[in-house]
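Appendix B: complex inputs.
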Amino acid sequence: MSESSRIPGPESAKRVGEEQEWLAPGVQRLATLAGIAMRSGQGVVLEDEDGNSYLDFMAGVCVASLGHSHPRWVSAISQQAARLAVGSFTSEARLNLLKLLASLLPDPLHRVQFYSGGAEAVESAIRLAKAATGKFEVVSFWGGFHGKTGGVLSLIGDPFKRGWGPLTPGSHLVPYADCVRCPLKTSYPGCGLACVDFAREQLRAASLGAVAAVIVEPIQGTAGNVVPPPDWLPAVADLAKELDALLIIDEMITGFGRTGTMFGFEHTDTTPDIMTIGKGFGAGFPVTGVVTSPEISKAEPWSKPSSSSSSYGGNPLASAAALATVETILEEGLVENSRRVGEHMLSRLREMQERRRLVGDVRGKGLLIGVDLVADRATGEPLEAKWTERLYKRCLENGLVVMAYGARVRINPPLVICEEEADAGLDIFEAALAEIEAELT
Ligand SMILES: Cc1ncc(COP(=O)(O)O)c(C=O)c1O
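Resulting structure:
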């Protein structure tokens, strides 16, 4: 799709170079690696300042559920901004959003509090669980990611948190069901979910008997779109019950159709006590939320006036953006589109796996797809970062943005993608893989 084979082009390079004088380091790695200045987006296509266009398989890390500049979303935000943007008073937009959410959520999950960042919502969910149980320990999973603020850093299940200690006391990390790289070196289903038994034993040894919550992603996003076996989440829910703890399901990535169902937990018969939502919920407007039952939501001090509020949470502008997003997801059948196009992409990737020796495991649900790149299929040794970065850049040069920043490639395009766009992007991906394979021989 790109007219130029040189990325970044001169206009991008000029702007990115100038920005470097002022921008503090630490921004997203993929954006830094690309060195591109983006000008606009329309549907599934992004355009940079040199006029190069890219199919977007990243969607702002699952944020752009409606794609870019969806007319209905643009119009809802413009109209609300012209009327009233700020404040915590009841607004028509917030009332309608709450009613719509209640119609989508299973009983008894009918109480919602809004925020503007994902980590902020997870922080609030943890505070709520502490308030409701009177306990303070939290269990999270290896490979898990829930944000970067002080109260949730300890929940991250990888070395990312190094350098920010001391972390929150009472945090326990246990293995996720990442079966391709099973940390217990067993295999499913013969293992009988040994990772859950391991977690039980680990908590028996390490917990102070005060577990307030078990927090889990139904499919791990940051770890590489990792799909656990279907009986794993119910087993985690049972573990939470045994601990007399609340189950928090973090649907920040998996919510609102991303996995081919409205919420990720719907692939099993598990219902959370508390759920966090964000990213694709606002389609680019920063709006997140904590969802729970009327009973749990009453817990003090969380429920006391101003105890769980925030400056931007659920203001009229945020509510209008989220309302337009969810209405559009429903009216355009985007949950079904995610399931259908996701299945098509998975089957194409599985064919690719036959042809391309660098492709190890391929997995996914809906439009949340993970592809492991391996140096050696027999041992499963991950492909070195220098090659995955090269793959990322070759894809960019040929008109595709894909999250190939490590050996686990994440494919999560906007939910509005059609099969033709999916095929065009996968063709670029395979051609880049073929080039890397040739360079490696
Ligand atoms: C599952 C999950 N929870 C929480 C967060 C944190 O969201 P935010 O970056 O908006 O703070 C993320 C971000 O990637 C996430 O993937």
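The chain has two domains: 3-69+333-440, 71-331.
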